[in-house]
Amino acid sequence: MEPRLLDHSLGEADYYDPRDYAGVFRRLLIYFIDLVVLVMLGVLMWIPLMFLIIGGVIRTDPSFLFWTTYLLVVWGYLAPIKRSRFGTLGYRLMGINIVSAQGGPPSLLVMTARMLIWILTPFSLFVDLFWIGADSERQILRDCYLGTYLIKRNAKAIGRGPVNLTRYFAMSFALAYPRVRRPKPTD
Q1: Are 139 and 18 a contacting pair, CB within 8 Å?
Q2: Membrane-spanning residues where (predicted)?
Q3: pLDDT tens for residues 124-148?
Q4: Structural domain count, the chain
């Protein structure tokens, strides 16, 4: 009998030691720290506007200017800074880094999509926390679909394997997303 050939049509990806993936507790702390940073940035941006309004320099509603600028700041923090080698304050304090399935930093497009899914998906925090507990790589769903991992800053890939489509059926949902296939342990 011939050995079964593995499908490599979706490419290959790195995988890490299971202890190197960020768990629920670290992710919660990262969410909290980064949320505090974003709120503080918003307050720091609003203070000069308030002084300009009180001083009579600005006589119209500055909300559009504020929100446009603030959304750009949020994007800058959650996309380019998060993917950089420095990471966000939450990533730095928790010793976490985000990487693509190929091991390098995710693209700016992937990080922007990751941020938009997080912002525009209601109840994503609860789904994320539930999914981490069920996932062997401790990925949240948006990371599964976008091919990103949250790993310890000093983690090194322990192997590389073919990427296959994984299917999950639960609570009337049928999900399919790419997943790296680890070699089966030998006895």
Answers
A1: no
A2: 28-58, 64-81, 115-134
A3: 778 888 888 777 788 888 898 898 9
A4: 1
For the segment 13-66, what is each residue's pLDDT rounded down to a tens digit?
Answer: 899 998 999 988 999 999 999 999 999 999 999 999 888 888 888 888 888 989
Q: For residue 135, what are the CA distances in angstroms to 14, 16, 43?
A: 16, 14, 37
Q: Are 82 and 91 in contact (CB under 8 A)?
A: yes
Is residue 41 a part of any domain in this protein? yes
Residue-range definition of the domain harbouring residue 43: 19-153
Please give the sequence-ordered ranges of beta strands (E in DSSP) within the chain, or none if there are none: 12-15, 96-100, 148-152, 159-170, 173-180
Residue 160 in domain? no
In-domain check, residue 176: no
CB count within 10 Å of CB 92 equals 14
